[in-house]
Amino acid sequence: MARILVIDDDPDMRAMVGQTLKSAGHKVILAADGREGVARYRTSPADLAIIDLYMPNQEGLETLREFHTRFPEVAIVAMSGWPTAATMLSIAQKLGAIGVLHKPFFIKELIAVVAQALGGQSQARRCPRCGSHMVLRRAKTGQHVGRKVWGCSTFAKTKCGGMREVD
Ligand SMILES: [Zn+2]
Questions:
Q1: Which of 13, 99, 120, 123 could connect to 113 by a Cys-Cys bridge, CB 3.0–4.6 Å?
Q2: pLDDT > 70: what percent of the chain?
Q3: CA–CA separation, 35 vs 101, rounded Å?
């Protein structure tokens, strides 16, 4: 089980993604835009944030950049739809997204991308320092900058900072 924040302005999409992830056993936090997402994250940190790239108030890419900068412990998956999905998602990956979803997508694709970002459904991947589970993310400090690493998911609470290279 992981804590997953879903940020999407489309209520149907938000509910569908949320329900799917709840059915898969995760705790889900929903937000309608980037500002609400940041506020929710502050009170209830998540292991993974799923961010839609078209949203009012705070543009999706801006939200993604903000999460990657301010909350480096969280794994990010970006969602985007036709017609500019390919371009948007490739920018999202440069800004720190570890997984992408082209809308519309199948439920099994959502499950697979989430499972990969969370270190696999077995949850067997453990932090070398504290034993908590690890999430896949893009490193922004140290010798691994820009590369995919497994990072400890408790960073926000304990500042554990456990990290290791993707094998
Ligand atoms: Zn740790």
A1: 99
A2: 93
A3: 22
pLDDT on residue 120: 57
The mean of the pLDDT values for the chain is 88
Q: How far apart are the first and last CA of the chain?
A: 23
Query: What is the whole-number distance in angstroms between the Cα of residue 108 and the centre of ligand 1?
Result: 29
Centroid of ligand 1 to alpha carbon of 135 (angstroms): 11
Please list the ranges in the chain whose pLDDT falls under 50.
121-122
The CA 162 to ligand 1 mean position distance, Å, reads 5
Let me know whether 21 and 64 are in one domain. Answer: yes
- Triad 66, 150, 147: Cα angle to 5°: 65
Looking at the fold, whether 98 and 141 belong to one and the same domain comes out as: no
Q: How many structural domains compose the chain?
A: 2
Tell me the residues surrounding ligand 1 (ion) with CB < 5 Å: 127, 129-130, 132, 152, 160, 162
Check whether residue 67 and residue 133 sit in a common domain. no
Residues 8 and 81 in one domain: yes
| pTM exceeds 0.85 for this model | yes
CB 52 within 8 A of CB 9: yes
Which pLDDT belongs to residue 124? 61
Identify the sign of the CA torsion 63, 65, 70, 73: positive
Q: Are residues 90 and 146 in the same domain?
A: no
